[in-house]
Amino acid sequence: MQIKLNIVVGAVAALLSGAAMSQDLVVKIGHVGPTSGAIAHLGKDNELGARLAIEELNAKGVTIGGKKAKFELLAEDDAGDPKQGTAAAQKLVDSKVNGVIGHLNSGTSIPASKVYSDAGIPQISPSATNPKFTRNGYKTTFRVVADDVHLGGTLGKYSVTTLKGKSIAVIDDRTAYGQGVADEFEKGVKAAGGKVVGREFTNDKATDFTAILTSLKGKKPDVVFFGGMDAVAGPMLRQMKQLGIEAKFMGGDGICSGELPKLAAGTMADGQVVCAEAGGVEGEAKKSMDDFKAKFKSKFNVDVQIYAPYVYDAVNVMVAAMVKANSAEPAKYLPVLAKTAGYKGVTGTIAFDDKGDIKNGALTLYTYKGGNREQIAVVR
């Protein structure tokens, strides 16, 4: 009798346990970035930011609509390629994700945004800066960094007013990001009364820049701006050194990584490079960012490259909207996400305008000394 009773009690306990588990709400968060290819170090940095956020949310035991949420990260690799990016986006849509963080590049984020919009799935990019990303009228599209109009224009003005550039050359990699930020930089130079003496282009997989650099050398530039990523900027800096071009080298967030000195193989002079990150914290908020970087290093044994903190904040902003809406269903929490205002993240205060852009986005200007990145200033 006692054995039968134990069996019954055990069976009931198992049923109750199963029922409790079935009450858990599974929330799938997609992340897309280039985790293979030349800028895989940047894509992996972003993905680790998402993993850290997901792990912490699960440890906190977040509840949404009265149910304990179990967060799952569905990570995809787009290799920085637009076609692979839209394929990854469709895969996440087919997997019925509740939201997407990504993509890293503007060139993949822009075409992917239509896929998410058609499916009604919110997308927050932590790093896509091309203005077109939020100009297609999609209600599902957001970003937590300033765009290239702000970034490129600020760098253009800085090259003239602070670096005192008299003859400025511009190179871009013909991607949506690289060409876009270079165009805005050129506008900023001209608006500040500066002179652009040459405009050249390459591609995002190139390794030999001898022809375009030789052409520019004859124009004696004192500043060279490159619109593109660090994997191309590093070899370009090496070849500038070989050709005896001692100009200041400028770029946007794509080159502004911890990896750039290695990619340039020690050819960068102290203070030669000036770049901007499309985000920034100052004052009391700086401690939150410093604490995040220490936690990230302790967890993964690698330093933050650029945008892991922005990915981390993007995940948490999305989940905060779900909690407030009492639902992880995209159609129900999307209107709440759009009204986000005053969210305190490690990257600063996050609020979205009617296009999905971050309000009052900051920029951080950096240079490099002794192979280390050093902050110059935060500007808005």
From TrEMBL:
Keyword Nucleus: no
Signal is among the record's keywords: yes
GO annotation terms (biological process): amino acid transport
Endpoints of the signal sequence: 1-22
Domain Leucine-binding protein: 27-371
InterPro entries attached to this UniProt entry: Leu-bd (IPR028081), Leu_Ile_Val-bd (IPR000709), Peripla_BP_I (IPR028082)
Keywords: Amino-acid transport, Signal, Transport
SUPFAM superfamilies in the record: Periplasmic binding protein-like I
Transmembrane segment boundaries: none
Protein family according to the UniProt entry: Belongs to the leucine-binding protein family.
Protein name: Branched chain amino acid ABC transporter substrate-binding protein
